[in-house]
Amino acid sequence: MASEVSDRPRAETDAASALLDAYSQAVIRVVERVAPSVINVRRGRSGGSGVIVTPDGYALTNAHVVDATREVGVAMHSGAELHADVVGSDPATDLAVIRVNGSGLPAAELSDSDTLRVGQLVIAIGDPLGFHSTVTTGVVSATGRSLRANDGRMIENVIQTDAALNPGNSGGPLVDTHAKIIGINTAIIPMAQGICFAIPATTARLVAGMLIRDGRVRRAYLGIGGAPTPIGRSLASELGLASSGGIRVLEVVAPSPAERAGLRAGDILVSLDGTPLITLSELQRVLSADRIGRAADLAYVRAGELRHTSITPVESR
After folding, report:
1. How far is the C-alpha of 41 from the C-alpha of 231, rounded, in Å?
2. Average of per-residue pLDDT across 143-149
3. Tell me, what DSSP letter sits at residue 278?
4. What gap in Å lies between CA 127 and CA 165, rounded to an integer?
């Protein structure tokens, strides 16, 4: 009996060590796969990080990293020094696309960030303060945050993480344990600890596609701040809704199309011209350039009642 009691703590310690070893190995595997695609982006004396997402050299970084320049210097994981053209930038999401002059380059894969869960393990890789390929780990602290960009605009649907970020991490990837990019690191709160932010990969994929195709992003604008919210299956069924979620309006900008349409804080947007609105990414996708100046039917829930209003998006400035 005494032997059984003494063996139990040892067995528990061994199990805990095995879990920690498995976690360590998972992080190591992710870093080995993703780090070669992470680059140092330099603009004069300032700079940040970036991540190559196609073998022919297209890379994502932050708009504030490239600022208004047309060309930047790039240091590869291998130590090679290359040049990159700035394809385009989008201050509204603090994202930019550059193209590294090269071919057959190591590229990381963008994930679907809409499936992120709070508490999920994440890994940040970048060049903070000039220290190349620095790795930190943490969790997804929250999703759907709003963050004010350098130009004063609100960036919606931002990921909050406690993975440590420092100046120079901007533009680097936030990745999951499957070595896929779930976000592009963008900001920290000065004097705060463990509060850092990343632009979701779903947004990055959408913006990158437009920047590569057109060199800029044109988007329709409603004038709201919002967050995804559940409606409840019983109410959704009673109202005849296709889904049990929507976008809760947290703020209505004045003046704006939303204000003119009579929307109020607390309303829950459920569809635009029949397209369900469940996540902020879906709202971003539906507000494409072809909706600018065109009236649309917006369905929303207020005080348990399904309502409709006509709204005419304008071009985002």
Report:
1. 44
2. 82
3. -
4. 10
- Radius of gyration of the chain, Cα coordinates, nearest whole angstrom: 22
Quick check: helix, strand or coil at residue 54?
A: coil
Contacts of 231 (CB under 8 A, 6+ apart): 241, 243, 244, 245, 246, 268, 270, 301
315 - beta bridge partners?
220
- Active-site annotation, residues: 64, 94, 170
Task: Say if strands 109-110 and 180-188 run parallel, antiparallel, or are unpaired.
Answer: parallel
- The whole-angstrom separation of Cα 197 and Cα 34 is 19
Contact 38, 125 (CB under 8 A): yes
pTM of the predicted model as reported, rounded to 2 decimal places: 0.76
Residue pLDDT, tens place only, 43-65: 988 889 999 999 999 999 999 99
Nearest to 301 by CA among 264, 277, 275, 269: 269
In whole angstroms, what is the distance from residue 202 CA to residue 40 CA?
A: 23
pLDDT digits (tens, 9 = 90+) for 219-257: 899 999 998 999 989 999 999 998 899 999 999 999 999
d(CA 123, CA 161): 10
Q: How does pLDDT run across 62-108, given as a tens digit for each residue?
A: 999 998 899 999 999 998 999 999 999 998 889 999 999 988 999 99
Contact between 290 and 243 under an 8 Å Cβ cutoff? The reply is no
List the domains of the chain with CATH numbers.
1-217 (2.40.10.120), 220-315 (2.30.42.10)
